[in-house]
Amino acid sequence: MGTYKYSAEFRSDAVALARSSGRPVSRVAAELGVNHETLRQWIKTAEHAERPEAVAQSTKDAEIAALRKQVRELEMERDILRRAAKYFAGETNW
């Protein structure tokens, strides 16, 4: 079996159909020709995207990750500068 790409419109229509039909997700997925677990994931993703706190949380998580990366880079630069200062202080024989 190959992998299939579904358009965003198809995904949103499938999620809307699954929510409004009242039928089991597996039956709706079979009618659409989609794996039932794929449809469940689409529903889960849609529910997650609809919650405003989820969007804010993901934004915060991304910002925290970027700041942590920046801290690691700055600490590495600081350590390099410390080693360089120590090296040059030893070379001058003060």
From TrEMBL:
The keyword Coiled coil applies. Keywords: Coiled coil. InterPro entries: Homeodomain-like_sf, RD_transcriptional_regulator, Transposase_8. It comes from the Bacteria. The keyword Coiled coil applies. SUPFAM superfamilies: Homeodomain-like. Gene3D superfamilies: Homeodomain-like. Residues 57-84 form a coiled coil. This is Transposase.
